[in-house]
Design brief:
single chain; 202 residues; three-stranded antiparallel beta sheet; 8 helices; 46% helix
Length: 202
């Protein structure tokens, strides 16, 4: 079912668009609700959509050759309200290696990718939103790469707590530890150390 233009107008990230742009976007938009632990897409599936999160939290993960989960992304609209697509789109692919799972009840606005890009080339406001989203995505990937390559686990954790409070409150410690590249036991030690450090300052 297509979303109504009023739904898009009520969202802060779409308020800069014209009435004509709202109508055009709503015609290709589908509202999707994902209950907790349900998946938007599974590894190996074709996925030709982009989406905007309106509420909730998603984790992106894949299994290693040894069968262990690797949480690569934790995504929430509380950080950046942007149009999101699978990383494989940058390589002109539609099949993804990621499982995308709802960590909590999550709501999305779903757009077929080619239809959305066609509108982006027709309407200036949609184009500007798309380009802004791509810049935010690239910057997030750059920051994640630099953190994993050059920061200590302690620094990564402190940065995570500071910048991603919503995810800290709603994701499991197991998923956060895996995202940070450490074990759950190491995360517990870092938490205790940080708590002690904060207590001593008071």
């Amino acid at each position: 079912m297509a979303a109504q233009p009023e739904l898009l107008k009520d969202l802060e990230l779409f308020r800069h668009l014209s009435d004509e742009e709202h109508v055009a976007l709503s015609a290709i938009c589908r509202l999707l609700f994902l209950p907790k632990k349900s998946r938007l897409v599974e590894s190996g599936e074709m996925f030709d959509h982009v989406f905007v999160m309106t509420s909730g939290l998603l984790r992106w993960y894949f299994d290693s050759d040894e069968g262990t989960e690797n949480n690569i992304f934790l995504t929430s609209e509380k950080e950046h309200a942007i149009i999101i697509g699978i990383p494989e789109f940058y390589d002109e692919q539609r099949k993804t290696k990621y499982n995308i799972e709802a960590v909590m009840d999550t709501q999305l606005l779903l757009f077929q990718k080619d239809a959305f890009e066609e509108l982006a080339f027709q309407y200036r406001g949609i184009y500007q939103f798309y380009i802004k989203s791509l810049k935010i995505t690239i910057d997030a990937l750059r920051n994640r790469t630099e953190q994993l390559c050059s920061q200590s686990p302690n620094t990564r954790y402190e940065t995570f707590l500071k910048n991603r409070s919503f995810i800290t409150r709603n994701a499991s410690r197991k998923h956060i530890a895996n995202f940070l590249g450490i074990t759950p036991n190491s995360l517990s030690r870092l938490t205790a150390r940080l708590h002690k450090k904060t207590h001593q300052k008071k």
